[in-house]
Specification:
2 strands; mainly alpha; two-stranded antiparallel ribbon; 3 domains; flat; about 100 residues
């Protein structure tokens, strides 16, 4: 992931935060971002499928896991790659250490 994508300032103004939503007269928000809606398309199906599996097993709703893509817009491979983006820096430092405790840390 390029640094420029990560280094974007977060919105602080109310209009910026709710730019892709519209306020309903009855209260609440309606999402107007079609791209975000497209990404979340299969989430309800996954949740219902998970609920049905737990119901058949006799488990309650507390044993249900929600799909990761519901909360995280990036794929699993992108998240794993983020963990390893600093690996060359840290592994080089570890290789240069002579103390085994410091190398492990």
């Amino acid at each position: 992931m390029p640094f420029d994508d990560v280094d974007q300032p977060l919105p602080v103004d109310r209009d910026e935060i709710f730019a892709k939503f519209e306020f309903c007269k009855s209260g609440g928000l309606r999402c107007t971002d079609t791209e975000a809606m497209e990404r979340q398309k299969g989430v309800l199906k996954d949740v219902v499928k998970e609920f049905a599996k737990n119901f058949i097993r006799g488990l309650g709703i507390s044993h249900m896991s929600l799909p990761v893509r519901m909360f995280e817009p990036r794929s699993t491979i992108q998240r794993v790659a983020d963990y390893f983006c600093f690996a060359p820096t840290f592994l080089k430092q570890a290789a240069e250490e002579t103390d085994h405790i410091e190398r492990f840390r």
